[in-house]
Amino acid sequence: MLTEERQQKILQLLAQNNIVKLHELTDLLAASESTIRRDLQELENQKLLIRVHGGAKRIGQHIGFEADMQTKSKENVSAKQMIAKLAATQIKKDDVIYLDAGSSTLELIPLLPKGTPLKVVTNSVKHASQLIDLNIETIILGGMIKLSTNATLGNTSLKQLQEFNFNKAFLGINGIDLNAGLTTPDPEEAILKKTALQQAEEGFILADHSKFNQISFAKVAALEAVTILTDYCPAEHAEMYHDVKILEAQK
């Protein structure tokens, strides 16, 4: 077995079990302890796992943490732009869409079809401002503004959202996991995302490859409720997610 194949197998086992033991890896991969130790060291150097006595563990997840908008807008920019281009192909003339707050959905705004009648509802002050600059019919949900993400939240936003119906909803997400589903750190944002999906004929999740096999605090929906738009699904996770509807920008 090639080194790359062996290391992908190790990551796949970690994704499923959170911890792997050295003696189990030597048996499963038919490799010596010294070979497996080198693999684990290389993967730790890449910050893909943490070595522990007798094996390795999955890198811990801060399930309640969420970076602010300024920080998120600088992460994986090229991947988000690729995903946004893919998302734009899903939008048709006269669509009424919901555009969730977030750095991935923000990249979609400049790519919205020019000269195509659209109506957009959003819970983001920043998104609404850019949509207005493009002369796109826009409704912004009312409510309290979360300063770190520029998103409106709370009962006012929720009640207003429940009155609308959409052809499509485009959402960002923090975690995609086979068992936990779609998750995000803030329970109030989770409620809005969940409601937007319920009010839409189709739901799309814009998420780069780093969001796979990640879990945040509050559940939004099951994976089967949406189509995931991503730059690519990492090879070590691809087999796990083969039943999930995923469109990859790099294919």
What does this structure look like?
With 251 residues, the protein is α/β, with parallel strands linked by helices. It contains ten helices and 15 strands. A seven-stranded parallel β-sheet has the order 6-5-4-9-12-14-15, with helices on both faces. The longest helix is centred in the first third of the chain and has 15 residues, at 3-17. The model has no long low-confidence stretch (mean pLDDT 90).
Describe this protein with a few key phrases.
10 helices; 3-stranded antiparallel β-sheet; 7-stranded parallel β-sheet; 251 residues; alpha/beta
Task: Indicate the structural class.
Answer: alpha/beta
Averaged pLDDT: 90
Report strand %.
15-25%
The DSSP helix count reads 10
The gyration radius over C-alpha positions equals 20 Å
- Which oligomeric form is depicted? single chain
The global form is elongated
Strand order of the largest sheet: 6-5-4-9-12-14-15
Largest sheet: 7 strands, parallel
- Enumerate the spans where pLDDT stays under 50 for 5 or more consecutive residues: none
Helicity level, as a percent range?
25-40%
What are the SSEs and their pairings?
Blueprint: H1 3-17, E1 19-21, H2 22-29, H3 33-45, E2 50-52, E3 55-57, H4 69-72, H5 77-88, E4 96-99, H6 103-106, E5 119-122, H7 125-133, E6 137-140, E7 144-146, E8 151-153, H8 155-161, E9 166-172, E10 175-177, E11 181-184, H9 187-198, E12 200-206, E13 218-221, E14 227-230, H10 235-238, E15 246-248
Parallel strand pairs: 4-5, 4-9, 5-6, 9-12, 12-14, 14-15
Antiparallel strand pairs: 1-3, 2-3, 7-8, 10-11, 11-13
